[in-house]
Amino acid sequence: MKSLISTFTQNLDFSETEIESILATPLNEVLNSPALKKELDSLDINLLKKTLPTAGAVLAEHLPLFYDWLKNELGVQRVPDSPDHTTKWVVGFLNNQESINHLVELHRPVPHAALEQAVPRLVGLFDGVEEEKVRQEWEKAVAALCLVLVVDAREQEKLAN
Predict the structure, then answer these.
(1) Rounded Cα distance, 45 and 129, in Å
(2) pTM exceeds cut of 0.90
(3) How far apart are CA 17 and CA 107, in angstroms?
(4) What is the pLDDT of residue 2?
(5) How many CB atoms lie within 10 A of CB 150?
(6) Contact criterion met (CB below 8 Å) for 67 and 84
(7) Which of 3, 84, 103, 118 has its CA 20 to 30 A from that of 78?
(8) Under 8 Å CB-to-CB from 135, ≥6 apart: which residues?
(9) Three-class SS of the chain
(10) pLDDT, tens digit, for every residue of 54-89?
């Protein structure tokens, strides 16, 4: 399985050193950083919106097994019953109805270690998408959102210790 850092470097326009630096930065600074803004602005929102049915099909097919893995292998307590909420959230985000801050709040209960282990597998759900540009854009979008979640999880762990 790919590592967390390599998942980010392969799907985002950041070097390993830049990713490590971002992961050590407080969430507010990351959210307000020109680097993250540039990465999010580089997403092809029109392509993502156009290919939502593809993403929805991928999520519907693979998220149930992913959720089982989170619950049974990683011990995550609160796991969704179905992929519907994730698909709806992605649609809402692409239509500017959901915020990254809300995504962070929703994922705060997920243990830090489990979240980090889950990122490569979650991004990898799109590996089977045949059209390269579509696959890359969805992997990039998911990786960018996961980067923010990992930054927050690390910050919350520091605050707790």
Answers:
(1) 17
(2) yes
(3) 25
(4) 63
(5) 20
(6) no
(7) 3
(8) 126, 127, 129
(9) CCCHHHHHHHHCCCCHHHHHHHHCCCHHHHHCCHHHHHHHHCCCHHHHHHCHHHHHHHHHHHHHHHHHHHHHCCCCCCCCCCCHHHHHHHHHHHCCCCCHHHHHHHHCCCCHHHHHHHHHHHHHHHHHCCCHHHHHHHHHHHHHHHHHHHHHHHHHHHHHC
(10) 998 999 999 999 999 999 999 998 888 778 777 777
Listed residue (4, 10, 40, 38) closest to 23, CA to CA: 4
Average model confidence (pLDDT) for the chain? 91
Structure tokens, 65: 């097994």
pLDDT in tens, 12-63: 999 999 999 999 999 999 999 999 999 988 999 999 989 999 998 999 999 9
Exposure string (b/e) for 10-39, b if CB count within 10 Å is 16 or more? ebbebeeeebeebbebebeebbeeeebeeb
pLDDT band at 1 (very low <50, low <70, confident <90, very high): very low
- Joined tokens for residue 160: 């707790």
Q: What is the pLDDT of residue 125?
A: 95
Whether 148 has a pLDDT exceeding 80, the answer reads yes
